[in-house]
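Quarterly update from the structural biology core.
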Amino acid sequence: MCVARFAGTLLSLGVVASGHLRTSRTSDPVDQDVGDCFALHHDEDSLEGCLLAYLQKYMPSWDTTNLGTLQLAILNDTVDLSLEARQSYGWAADIPWPIWRNWVLPFASVNEAITQARNSWRSLFKERLANLTASPEFRQLHRIADATGKLNSVLWTTVSPGSTIVFKSEQTPKIYDPMSTIAFGYTSCTGISLMLVDGLRTIGIPACLVGTPAWNGKVANGNHNWVEVWLGHELGWSFMEGLLAGSGSLADPCTKWFCSAAKMDGTEVFTEQWDSMSNDTIYPMAWDLINQEIPGLNRTHYYREICSTCGEV
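Predicted structure, tokenized:
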């Protein structure tokens, strides 16, 4: 259970599981799409301007309200550091625009943090992961899966010097953004998943939050969040949990405790994304089911198919 049980806050699953609701974010009718920034812009200033325009275009309402603060504190760093990662790591250089724009570039996945004041996790993560990313062992890694495994094995102590982040159930939405997790030293599956997503994005690896608001379609059965990672053109997407929440492995899906025919029976699974033009649904946040501003993709068919031959772990 990731989300704390608060009386009256969990809505009927029927609100979120229709599967084809569009986010309520609005797009500028004059400029419907910024286009492929990598293909259209080759000089640095022009490319950075395109990436900033893309981020601003699909912001949820609370970020639009805070746009001035974001411009001063976060947006330029987000663009600069994401491009730096693209140039620094071999696996990042050829990540296609549709993947990059949704699951590397963005400064948030859902509505973290609850203060509605975003934080610059990317610059902090870059600083605290510097010893790892500069090490000869890490620099010799060429496969996204290997880099992901290495990051997941050390992230929980590296980003919180002098202490180790630990798992504590039912913390969302009290503690789930990376800065709160570091400050308190604990979080539940949503916070662990978001920290892993952000750690991977820091080193140019596409990653997204994925989960279900209700096992077997029943809110009483609980909810869960985990992570999908894009492993390259040939391997595509795979899924895992942060080391503190599970095995931390990208290996056989059947090793995941939740990947079974019984667990996926009636369960709807979703991933989040940034742009609200190519999504096919909203991302239902179990801690805020009435909120329909986060674009999402319905991944139910994928998980029911891949977990259909797995028994209970």
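The mean pLDDT is 89.
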